[in-house]
């Protein structure tokens, strides 16, 4: 049984209104022993979107530190963050410098590095899938997707994996890379069956990503939100988790990516099966940025 949820959001995240106490009370009722808040911090969110996806980190630590004490003996509260990494020209050094400073200033237990933005677009919206340059930017679709009215799922996934490969090579101050194939959720106009892609189609670049992550002593997560979204599989798919294990990967966390209490620990039975089927006998939690291995 998995008793730790290491990827969750609350009202500090722009896309959640959930009170922290409500999330913790729900986690306790589910029998969880460890709960980590990893609210969104996406530095330099694209200008065309109204939301900013940042928060006051001082207030975040003030609130969560108080909750650590208030819930002591009921559930362990960890303070994490999900940081959006960027690969657009001219941004990586600026983004890296900002996060390095933030992570040095604040004593996070756990840092997730994630890719949420591509070519100044959020793939949640259809404008990314148009393949057109973002407003005021001259970054068009990648070469393999040019001259198309819209990006296919294959195009979008390939570009997403390319961004992760770049980021895994150019960023160091994170603990695990989040939801490695989550962009598949948002490909417009496709059925559940059509979104059931084959990771083998991207084997070479996935192997490069996993080898880079392993070489840097980082990990990946099993993110169960794909089940919540009705895809029928976790992020990433089980094949990628197995491949990570085959290549020597050891550090792996489990998170629901819950933005409301109903989704805490959602699909954790499936996550346990994915771990076991992939050869893992444990999962990890992080305290003070260090992994601890917990037996299944």
User: What separation lies between the terminal Cα atoms?
Assistant: 6 Å
Mean pLDDT: 97
If strands are numbered along the chain, what order do they take across the biggest sheet? 1-2-3-4-5-6-7
User: Based on the structure, what is the oligomeric state of the protein chains?
Assistant: single chain
Shape: globular
**What's the number of helices?**
9
What percent of the residues sit in helical stretches (DSSP H or I)? 25-40%
Strand residue percentage: 15-25%
Rg estimate, integer Å? 18 Å
Largest sheet: 7 strands, parallel
Residue stretches low in confidence (pLDDT < 50, at least 5 long) are none
Following the backbone from N to C, one meets helices and strands in this order, namely EHEHEHEHHEHEHHEHEE
- Got a strand count? 9
Supply database-style keywords.
seven-stranded parallel sheet; globular; 296 residues
Describe what this molecule looks like in 3D:
The protein is an alpha/beta fold. It has helices at 20-29, 57-70, 92-105, 126-129, 153-170, 203-215, 225-228, 238-246, 268-277, and strands at residues 4-8, 34-41, 76-84, 110-114, 176-177, 219-223, 252-255, 282-287, 290-295. The strands form 2 sheets. The protein has a 7-stranded parallel sheet with strand order 1-2-3-4-5-6-7. The protein has a two-stranded antiparallel sheet with strand order 8-9. Strand 5, helix 6 (203-215) and strand 6 form a beta-alpha-beta unit. Helix 5 (153-170) runs parallel beside helix 6 (203-215). The protein is globular and about 60 Å long. The N and C termini lie close together (6 Å). The model has no long low-confidence stretch (mean pLDDT 97).
């Amino acid at each position: 049984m998995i008793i730790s949820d290491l990827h969750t959001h609350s009202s500090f995240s722009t896309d959640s209104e959930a009170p922290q106490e409500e999330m913790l009370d729900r986690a306790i009722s589910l029998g969880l022993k460890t709960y980590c808040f990893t609210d969104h911090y996406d530095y330099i969110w694209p200008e065309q979107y109204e939301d900013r996806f940042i928060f006051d980190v001082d207030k975040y630590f003030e609130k969560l530190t108080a909750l650590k004490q208030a819930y002591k003996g009921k559930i362990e509260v960890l303070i994490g963050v999900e940081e959006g990494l960027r690969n657009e020209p001219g941004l990586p050094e600026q983004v890296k410098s900002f996060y390095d400073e933030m992570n040095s200033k604040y004593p996070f237990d756990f840092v997730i590095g994630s890719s949420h933005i591509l070519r100044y677009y959020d793939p949640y919206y259809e404008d990314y899938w148009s393949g057109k340059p973002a407003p005021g930017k001259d970054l068009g679709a990648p070469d393999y997707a040019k001259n198309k009215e819209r990006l296919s799922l294959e195009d979008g996934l390939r570009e997403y994996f390319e961004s992760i490969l770049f980021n895994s090579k150019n960023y160091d101050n994170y603990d695990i890379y989040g939801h490695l194939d989550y962009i598949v959720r948002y490909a417009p106009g496709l059925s559940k069956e059509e979104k059931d892609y084959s990771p083998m189609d991207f084997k070479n670049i996935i192997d490069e990503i996993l080898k880079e992550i392993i070489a840097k002593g980082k990990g990946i997560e099993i993110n169960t939100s794909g089940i919540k979204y009705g895809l029928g599989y976790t992020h990433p798919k089980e094949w990628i988790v197995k491949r990570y294990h085959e290549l020597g990967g050891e550090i792996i966390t489990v998170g629901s990516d819950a933005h409301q209490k109903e989704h805490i620990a959602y699909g954790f039975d499936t996550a346990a099966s994915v771990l076991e089927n992939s050869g893992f006998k444990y999962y990890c939690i992080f305290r003070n940025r260090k992994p601890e291995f917990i037996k299944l």
